């Protein structure tokens, strides 16, 4: 809504108007509300801003769930196609946009995991390694590659629900309450999944001290 700025120090008449209060409440409920409204209006600047804001986290989420960077990028592209279709009809108040987007991405990941149930464990462990820090010494780069490969392979071997719980809370940095809501379970159930996931990962990485420190 042009002409209103969300400034708590503004004591003018506009700050006390119903329109201002409604706009401020909308932003407090969902910080993406205004951006999604602009995307729904097909504002190209808003689309670019949304991609810049959400793409890295979407790809990271899907990569951790699927263990494959190329598939993760496909999932992110599918998610943005759904955003493009849904944005004109998006209504605030039911769920935060970011919560909905995480759920869409997770469902797309589950679709792909179901489609490759016949894959072998070796297939799940074939994960592309991240680029090493160019400033690190060669031996440090090797250790980093080895550690990341072990952690990624162990993560890919977890049961899907344990992997989802760990990815949402550790890698996506959601609170336990937010992650539990996304997964449709109680916080106690989430914490149980996390405890089992961490126990399994630590057991698998027991021979790699640096790997244990990464979980």
TrEMBL record:
InterPro entries noted in UniProt: RNA_pol_sigma-70-like, RNA_pol_sigma-70_dom, RNA_pol_sigma70_ECF_CS, RNA_pol_sigma70_r2, RNA_pol_sigma70_r4_t2, RNA_pol_sigma_r2, RNA_pol_sigma_r3/r4-like, WH-like_DNA-bd_sf
Superkingdom per UniProt: Bacteria
Keywords: DNA-binding, Sigma factor, Transcription, Transcription regulation
Residue ranges constituting the RNA polymerase sigma-70 region domain according to the UniProt record: 50-117
Pfam families hit by this protein: Sigma70_r2, Sigma70_r4_2
GO annotation (BP), single: DNA-templated transcription initiation
Domain (RNA polymerase sigma factor 70 region 4 type) ranges: 150-201
PROSITE patterns: SIGMA70_ECF (PS01063)
GO molecular function, a single term: sigma factor activity
SUPFAM superfamilies in the cross-refs: Sigma2 domain of RNA polymerase sigma factors, Sigma3 and sigma4 domains of RNA polymerase sigma factors
Similarity field: Belongs to the sigma-70 factor family. ECF subfamily.
Protein name (Swiss-Prot/TrEMBL): RNA polymerase sigma factor
